[in-house]
Amino acid sequence: MKVKAVRFVAPWLAAFASLLASPFAASADEFRTPSISAVRVEWRAVLDQLRAEINTQPSIAANFTFASQRRVPSYDPRSRPALVQLNAITSQLFPGIGRSPIPVLLPFDTASYLEARQSGTPESLSVSRYQADFRPADLFHAGAAGYDAMFALEPGAGNGMPERTFARPVEVHITGSLLLYDLNDRLGGRAEPVKSLSAQYPDIRRIIREGYVRYAFTRFGVPYVVSIHCLDSTPRLRRLACREAYAVAARFLKALRVAGGQPSRLRRDIASVSAERPAAVSPEFTYRPSGDIVANSGYHKQGGRTDLTAYSQIRFPLAKAPAFVHSQSFGRRATNIPGRTVFARRAASKSASAPTALATRGRISARAPARPTAKAGSPAIPSGKRSLPCAMAS
């Protein structure tokens, strides 16, 4: 299944869930939730790919059973015992990998790893040798909607890698999602094909957007996104240029293999509905309508863009008032007035819908005029600063 330019991977949208969930000046019936589609995973193709990868090391083939029991439901682990066996091996390095309802693609060579263990290779050797020289995962999390993982390549690591100016490890983030938001993204069609990777990923697209270079592709009917934080500028010691990130991303993508995952019950698509909003608006809360930003505060003095999609129903749990929610405060700070609050997405590139070129991406925090006293048992206030997928349209 190909992912159209109007679709975004769902977990990324959860990362900026605060975009427009707060009440604006439109009537309640104008705000709607996005429609959500569940992908259909091609598990037979997954098993074929896994078999091909395992057969590169014939000595370990006996560890996997590809014959399935046809009398059990497709989501039953007994229907695909090879995946159960694979999850048992890789869960030692990637805990909870079997919770993913989609195939987990990682730069991890399970066949070589298992062959080395069976041949007596010391376990003290770094796992990087099985991960295309990427160091052990800095993050891995799998859940009911997919998975996220982050790896890093140290300076000078990787045979055949070109020299780079950036002197720090390059972090690479991959995400795969079972769910898709159907959105009208006016910038989604600007992604370009990547000819050097098209043989392995025929529909792969690359785009530099919001401070990341992203590679979006589908595999086994599932959308995946690989992203690296960079700037489309001159290479520097402390700032990764996107042109230097290309080689790292290509190495990562070429090393991806089936590392785990398990079929789940089929999910139903969710239609768009009217978003729930408060029945009454507080007279103490003033606001501007969606898309109505302060004059000349947009990128290149452009105006805002109205978006009446409520991506998530959010709440603001206050442990101690007074306080206010903000995703970005801007303007002169020669006053004690909290200033304006802007709900927008982070955009290091062109962003007409946010004041200044570098806006925020759903990063909510709470702040009080005076420093509050910590109180045991107070409810936590979400900061929104989570390592979530940075997906894009393909």
How would you characterize the overall build of this protein?
The chain is an alpha+beta fold and 394 residues long. It has a domain at 36-260. The protein has five helices and 14 strands. The chain has helices at residues 10-15, 43-54, 81-90, 110-118, 242-254; strands spanning 7-9, 35-38, 104-106, 139-143, 146-153, 170-177, 179-182, 192-193, 205-209, 212-219, 222-229, 257-260, 324-326, 365-367. The strands form four sheets. Strands 4-5-6-11-10-9-8 form a seven-stranded antiparallel beta sheet, covered by helices on one side. A hairpin with a 2-residue loop joins strand 9 (205-209) and strand 10. The longest helix has 13 residues, at 242-254. It starts with 6 loop residues before the first strand and ends in a 27-residue tail after the last strand. Residues 1-29, 334-339 and 343-394 have low confidence and may be disordered.
Q: What's the quick description here?
A:
This protein has 394 residues and is an alpha+beta fold.
Give the tags.
394 residues, alpha+beta, seven-stranded antiparallel β-sheet, 13% helix, globular, disordered C terminus
- Proportion of strand residues: 15-25%
Q: What is the CA-based Rg, rounded?
A: 23 Å
- Helical amount among residues, as a percent range? 10-25%
Please state how the strands of the largest beta sheet are arranged side by side.
4-5-6-11-10-9-8
Number of helices: 5
The averaged pLDDT comes out at 77
How many angstroms does the end-to-end distance come to? Answer: 12 Å
The main sheet comes to: 7 strands, antiparallel
Look at the helices and sheets and give the structural class: alpha+beta
Shape: globular
Name the helix and strand elements from N-terminus to C-terminus, one letter apiece.
EHEHHEHEEEEEEEEHEEE
Please provide the count of β strands: 14
Unreliable runs, pLDDT <50, ≥5 residues?
1-29, 334-339, 343-394
